[in-house]
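Work Package 4 report. The design task specified in the project plan requires that, given a folded chain encoded as structure tokens, an amino acid be chosen for each position. We show below one input record used in the internal validation round.
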């Protein structure tokens, strides 16, 4: 099996990959695509500047506007007549030409295209070589405004016929970013090398920092698997790992409870199995050696053997039934049953016991309540509730069974009048092999009755619980199909 990389190594590799991608994108943006970005933005700025100049073409401060726009956008601007005579020019350096004036009237302006620079005369610049191309494009175009990039990609030129015999020519060099790219490239080499070294170290530190609490949690999980359900769980690093630690702690707590319950279950089952087996063996030996010739004594001993055998059989059957219910995960399709009749039949099963032991079961059963359920299983729940009440009621030996309908649900409640259940025991009353500490009756009780009831009711998706505020009442609710008027009885 291929060995997988550790969490720390993977985190370190991903961090390095992330750093490499960032630097790759930075290199592309600052070197490969910088010129294209610059050209696009520069052309947009030129077009906006030309539009602003054109809007002031008829104003008296037209040339002042040109001066300001030329400086703020690094533009070379010429205003000429149709013959190419320079009427006005400006660039970003015009403020450096102190003492130099330009003519407002082209009639006396001696600075024609082709004139050389002459600082004595005040000739600031000649027309650019692209001027004639601009004029040709304006002549060919069907509009008064054109813009283009020169053939050598050195500049962007745009021109406008102002409508009064003047031509506005504006150009911006596009190659000026080349030197900047060279500087950025050298700078990026150093920045990349230093950043990758720093990123390598930082990624290693971070990966170790993250790996440490994960390793501790892993070690704690191994301790839990080894049977230590209270390991030291690290917390305080981050919310997600704290939540994982809490979940692992809860899991360990549940596992500890489950293991303790299993041990208690095995101990209790072993004890309850041992008791009837011991009695059966003892009385069998007594019959064989002592009471075989005494018919009356023999019959009493055999009755005890029979009773203990029945007790043993009941215990084994309940264990098997409980195990079968837990193992059965199939989806059940329940039939419509008369719950009122089923509850009455169960209570009648206790009539002989009540007559022999002076118990009283009061019933308040609403007739005609029907639900969808497994009738035999629901009867078992009712039987277990009543049997539990018999074993826990007080000296009055009074038990109350009620079946009512309200808000579309049938509610079965069985109440005993004993001392109730201790608050600390309530969370565990549905656990297997739980028996109340204050049980008075010594009848055959396996400790699985409520656990079996819980499994049945859970399978039926019923609501159930125990009310310990007034006496002790076990109850469950199922959706009803129909009901008829109430009838009160007593047994």
């Amino acid at each position: 099996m291929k060995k997988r990389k550790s969490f720390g190594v993977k985190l370190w590799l991903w961090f390095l990959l992330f750093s490499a991608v960032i630097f790759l994108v930075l290199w592309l943006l600052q070197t490969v695509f910088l010129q294209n970005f610059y050209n696009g933005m520069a052309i947009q700025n030129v077009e906006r500047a030309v539009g602003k100049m054109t809007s002031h073409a008829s104003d008296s401060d037209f040339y002042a506007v040109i001066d300001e726009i030329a400086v703020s956008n690094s533009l070379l601007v010429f205003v000429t007549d149709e013959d190419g005579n320079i009427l006005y020019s400006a660039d970003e350096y015009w403020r450096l030409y102190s003492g130099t004036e330009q003519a407002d009237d082209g009639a006396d302006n001696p600075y024609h295209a082709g004139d050389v620079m002459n600082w004595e005369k005040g000739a600031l610049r000649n027309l650019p070589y692209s001027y004639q191309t601009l004029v040709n494009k304006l002549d060919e175009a069907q509009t008064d405004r054109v813009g283009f990039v020169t053939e050598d990609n050195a500049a962007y030129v745009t021109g406008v016929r102002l409508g009064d015999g003047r031509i506005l020519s504006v150009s911006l060099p596009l190659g000026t970013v080349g030197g900047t790219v060279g500087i950025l490239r050298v700078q990026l080499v150093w920045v990349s090398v230093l950043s990758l070294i720093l990123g390598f170290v930082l990624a290693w530190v971070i990966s170790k920092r993250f790996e440490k609490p994960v390793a501790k949690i892993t070690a704690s999980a191994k301790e839990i698997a080894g049977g230590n359900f209270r390991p030291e769980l690290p917390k305080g690093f981050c919310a997600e790992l704290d939540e994982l630690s809490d979940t692992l702690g809860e899991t360990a707590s549940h596992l500890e409870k489950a293991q303790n319950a299993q041990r208690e279950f095995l101990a209790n089952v072993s004890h309850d199995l041992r008791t009837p087996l011991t009695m059966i063996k003892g009385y069998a030996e007594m019959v064989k050696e002592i009471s075989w010739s005494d018919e009356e004594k023999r019959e009493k001993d055999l009755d005890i053997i029979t009773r203990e055998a029945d007790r043993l059989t009941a215990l084994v059957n309940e264990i098997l039934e409980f195990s079968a219910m837990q193992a059965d995960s199939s989806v059940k399709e329940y039939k419509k049953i008369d719950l009122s009749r089923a509850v009455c039949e169960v209570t009648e099963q206790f009539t002989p016991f009540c007559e022999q032991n002076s118990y009283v079961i009061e019933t308040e059963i609403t007739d005609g309540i029907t639900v969808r359920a497994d009738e035999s299983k629901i009867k078992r729940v009712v039987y277990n509730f009543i049997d539990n009440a018999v074993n826990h009621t007080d000296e009055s030996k009074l038990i109350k069974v009620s079946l009512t309908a309200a808000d579309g649900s049938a509610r079965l409640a069985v109440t005993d009048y004993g001392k109730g259940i201790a608050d600390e025991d309530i969370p565990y009353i549905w656990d297997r092999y739980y028996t109340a500490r204050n049980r008075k009756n010594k009848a055959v009780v396996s400790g699985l009755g409520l656990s079996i009831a819980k499994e049945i009711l859970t399978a039926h998706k019923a609501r159930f619980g125990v009310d310990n505020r007034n006496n002790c009442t076990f109850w469950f609710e199922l959706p009803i199909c129909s009901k008829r008027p109430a009838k009160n009885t007593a047994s």
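The chain has four domains: 7-32+179-221, 34-94+124-175, 239-327, 335-490. Validation will be extended to a larger panel in the next phase.
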